[in-house]
Design a protein that fits this description.
heterodimer, A: 76% helix, 3% strand, B: 475 residues, alpha+beta, Beta-lactamase, 17 helices, 18% strand
Chain lengths: 446, 475
């Protein structure tokens, strides 16, 4: 009997997330404007229903498989959080983007399901971090709406960011051959996650002031220093994120194809150079090209990931039926493989599409913003987000070399969760700002 | 506060970037889908994938069958659900079929994924999953021939050694025997004895693929090939006078049992396996080229073989001294090879220089006998030119027609081959080798035999090959 429930639930969960994903993209087809708001609300309401149903089914399986009563309590705590978060956000900010809030909740929900299965204690920790982050970042849209001064202090962002990165380079903890984190009062803290955001602000404020050749040169130099420090810290994934975010922001600010092409050529050259210069770059590339040749060592992680994904297939093995724990650091860098193994390839693709949906939402907001400063912020943060998703998923499925990047909101990790909450909070702030402006404009006309 | 829009084209740039990123994601999802649909099966069928064992929770391990459908391994499920793996032929297929209880070896390891996958009717399978009933796993039909396997095992008897029978034009392995063997049905009770440190028999070792032996005179195939390469026009005029003991500097090389072969050209020296002639010939070779050629013949490298195997060694390089050259040229010295590798070289000669990858799984069927997957012969590549293969074939023909291979001389069919008697320890009998194929004019099977510590190749190993050829051509 239990087996039937678990099997049915597995397929239902896939169906539910597919419905959710479909709604996510159908939203983009809806006409925009005040009159159609009820339509958007209806779509978002259905999304909530799909997500809560999926969440419920997942914890039914988790409970049936473990018989652990803590599962029930943990589920209820999450339920309270998700309901509270979606409801309170709307209560406080009337013009919030419900779609973004829903997507955040869904990604967190998928992450928590998988973490609960992998390591209950880490899931609890992750949930606490999520709750605290939600509380802290709740205020961000309020600040964005009222603090135009944010656009006047480029060097504050630049210097703070660089200082943090240098500190990590000098005294950072070494994990898997890279300097990523520092310890502050017992917490391990990963500054590059936050510097991503300050970096986007730095670039946006610089280009907001001017896009003449001199400013471009100065900004490029500062950006290059960011990237260089990250490469020296062996944090290649972050280096790539900064590089691509900067290059594309430069392109949006200037629409100068020459800059873009030169940048890409320079980036390509630098990659080749670093391949020959740094052993750790070479290791990653070789492990990507043929992980089977060194399956015991460098190829171990990626081959285990491929085993997980391949064995799971399209429909997954079902929760607790696979062995995602065989992949080293699965709860951080290889969550996508764990999801694919146990919840199924279709489920994993839906998660990927939802991440892509977030990015599209960011781009729509960027396009709608009038001021170039806000436009660049929304665009830059969107790029930071989407490149991160691309690097982690691409690395997990051996599409590109693995770079050791987390899947935002899904992977375990305090700094990653908090910084993603900040990122989404800022975008939410811009969305609300824009909506409020539109409403004021309409009211002014009538 | 609003500065307006300094770059009126900004939104267009954003659109371009959005399209670019969506494009990249579409590619990535496409790649992911391709992997799941087509590539994953090959990837996950790997002994490093511990997940496969989990399949056994849902699937009854399939059967391993011979080429004519006889059961070599099956899982019997008793009424209370306990499963026992049974091997109806006891020790006959012990190494090649392997076992699946104390780790996995042989075909049990190679075909693990297929045996634990089910391609029964999808509806039935899903229903079974719901009601928690195990599905029947797929069956693996091998290339193994029960008759040949039995004859090979019987001919080898209680002696230590190995026999391999292959098809040179397809790479199909028809028989693979290693002695001493073990009974996979009683492996559980015998295990401690088999792996104990006092046990010097090494029954679990598959000597056919993992045993490393000095090739002895069978290596003259390689020496002669290299000589043919270096002297394409003058080799027929090679000449050596054998008085049973060849002296060079302070060293002496004697022929088997001190036989004096008299005046020999290359063909006669090969046929009679004259050590003196080949030791002298070795001194004339370019050692660097010889090493390159040996590597090309898969010494010191991976074999295109899915079973567990040992790499053959060839160590001599251009800095070698006289003694090493004399020894290596006649297959002694530091050279070591597996019987399987020797068989593969013979197969390549029989097949015009092209080595076909040896394989053991012919097809995978579901429990109803419907074909799920078929494996076709694949070429590994050319180990030597067609011309060289033809010349070597002629030399090997004379070994049987006029030389040491008289035991396989018959009017029923023509055999080409090479014998070997490899010294491995002073004062002990030599390892007896024979490797050859038949019919010489249209090769159908290759037989490679080694019998440890038993005597000369012509007297001990060749008769075993004879029985296999007789069996094969009498049907």
């Amino acid at each position: 009997m239990i087996n039937i429930i678990i099997e049915v639930s597995k397929y239902l969960m896939i169906l539910l997330i597919a419905v959710y994903t479909y709604l996510n993209f159908s939203y983009f087809r809806l006409p925009t404007g005040k009159r159609e708001d009820w339509q958007q609300d209806r779509v978002c309401g259905r999304q909530n229903a799909a997500m809560f149903a999926m969440h419920f089914l997942a914890y039914v399986i988790l409970y049936l498989k473990t018989g652990d009563e803590r599962m029930v309590l943990f589920y209820l705590a999450q339920l309270v959080f998700f309901v509270g978060y979606t409801w309170l956000y709307r209560l406080f900010y009337k013009n919030v983007s419900r779609l973004l809030v829903n997507n955040m909740c869904l990604l967190i929900c998928v992450g928590l399901i998988m973490l609960t299965r992998l390591n209950f204690d880490k899931a609890i920790r992750q949930f606490m971090i999520v709750a605290v982050s939600a509380l802290i970042t709740w205020i961000i849209p309020f600040i964005i709406d009222r603090t135009w001064q944010l656009s006047r202090i480029p060097w504050v962002y630049g210097i703070i960011g660089l200082l943090l990165l240098v500190v990590v380079l000098l005294i950072g903890n070494n994990s898997f051959g890279a300097q990523l984190s520092i310890n502050i009062v017992g917490f391990s803290f990963q500054p590059s996650e936050f510097v991503k955001i300050s970096f986007v602000f730095f670039v946006a404020t610089m280009f907001y002031q001017s896009t003449d050749f001199k400013t471009v040169c100065v900004t490029t130099a500062a950006a290059a220093v960011h990237v260089l420090i990250l490469v020296l810290s062996k944090d290649l994934g972050s280096a790539l994120i900064f590089f691509l975010a900067y290059l594309t922001m430069l392109f949006v600010a200037t629409t100068n194809w020459l800059y873009l092409l030169c940048g890409l050529a320079g980036g390509g050259l630098a990659s080749i150079l670093s391949y020959f210069l740094f052993g750790h770059v070479r290791t990653r590339v070789l492990a990507w090209q043929n992980p089977w040749a060194d399956i015991d060592n460098r190829g171990y992680q990626i081959t285990q990931s491929l085993f997980a994904i391949g064995t799971g297939g399209w429909f997954g093995m079902g929760l607790y039926q696979g062995m995602p724990y065989k992949i080293p650091v699965v709860e951080k860098d290889f969550m996508f493989a764990a999801i694919s193994e146990e919840l199924g390839g279709i489920f994993a693709i839906c998660v990927l599409l939802i991440c892509l949906g977030c990015f599209l939402q960011f781009m729509m907001i960027a396009a709608k913003m009038q001021a170039i400063f806000y436009k660049l912020i929304a665009f830059g943060l969107g790029m930071v987000y989407v490149v991160q998703v691309f690097l982690t998923v691409g690395g997990t499925i051996k599409f590109i070399p693995s770079t050791g990047i987390t899947l935002p909101l899904v992977s375990y990790g305090g700094s990653s969760v908090l910084s993603t909450f900040i990122l989404f909070g800022i975008i939410q702030g811009l969305y609300i700002l824009k909506k409020n402006d539109e409403e004021n404009y309409e009211e002014g006309n009538t | 506060m609003k500065k307006g829009i300094p770059n009126p084209k900004a939104n267009k740039s954003i659109l371009i970037m959005t399209y670019a990123l969506v494009g990249v994601f579409v590619c990535m999802i496409g790649y992911f889908g391709c992997f799941l649909q087509w590539k994953s099966e090959d990837v996950i069928n790997n002994s490093y994938n511990a997940r496969l064992d989990r399949f056994a929770d849902r699937i009854v391990r399939g059967e391993i069958l011979s080429n004519d459908g006889k059961v070599l391994a099956r899982t019997e499920v008793s009424e209370d659900g306990t499963e026992v793996r049974r091997y109806p032929y006891d020790s006959l297929f012990a190494h090649v079929v392997g076992y699946s209880d104390h780790g996995k070896t042989g075909l049990e390891s190679l075909a693990n994924f297929y045996l634990l996958s089910s391609h029964m009717n999808l509806v039935e399978r899903t229903m079974n999953e719901f009601i928690d009933v195990k599905n029947a796993g797929d069956n693996v039909v091998t290339t193994l021939d029960v008759d040949l396997q039995w004859v090979a095992s019987d001919a080898l008897g209680e002696r230590r050694g190995a026999v391999i029978v292959m098809e040179p034009d397809t790479g199909k392995v028809l028989a693979m025997v290693s002695k001493p063997g073990f009974n996979p049905n009683t492996l559980g009770t015998d295990w401690d004895v088999l792996i104990s440190a006092d046990n010097t028999q090494a029954q679990l070792l598959n000597r056919a693929t993992q045993g490393l032996y000095p090739p002895g005179s069978t290596f003259k195939i390689v020496t002669a090939l290299e000589y043919l390469r270096e002297h394409p026009d003058t080799w027929p005029s090679y000449h050596f006078d054998c008085d049973g003991l060849y002296k060079y500097e302070d060293y002496k090389i004697s022929c088997y049992h001190g036989n004096a072969h008299g005046s020999q050209d290359l063909t006669q020296a090969f046929a009679n396996s004259c050590n003196g002639a080949f030791a002298k010939l070795g001194l004339e070779l370019n050692l660097g080229n010889m090493k390159t050629f040996c590597n090309q013949l898969l010494f010191n490298s991976d074999l295109p073989l899915a079973l567990a195997y040992s790499k053959s060694n060839y160590v001599m390089d251009a800095r070698a001294g006289s003694w090493e050259i004399l020894q290596t040229s006649i297959g002694q010295g530091g050279t070591q090879m597996t019987p399987m590798h020797n068989g593969m070289l013979t197969a390549a000669i029989a097949n015009g220089g092209v080595l076909m990858k040896p394989y053991l799984i012919d097809r995978v069927e579901n429990a109803m006998g419907e074909e799920v997957k078929k494996f076709l012969p694949t070429a590994y590549g050319s180990l030597m030119s067609a011309d060289e293969a033809e010349k070597m074939a002629a030399l090997m023909r004379t070994v049987v027609a006029e030389g040491t291979g008289s035991a396989v001389r018959t009017d029923a069919y023509t055999v080409a081959g090479k014998t070997g008697s490899a010294e491995f320890e002073t004062g002990k009998e030599t390892h007896a080798w024979f490797t050859g194929y038949a019919p010489a004019e249209d090769p159908q099977i290759v037989v490679t035999v080694i019998v440890e510590e038993s005597g000369s190749g012509g007297q001990i190993a060749a008769p075993i090959a004879r029985r296999l050829f007789d069996t094969y051509f009498s049907r």
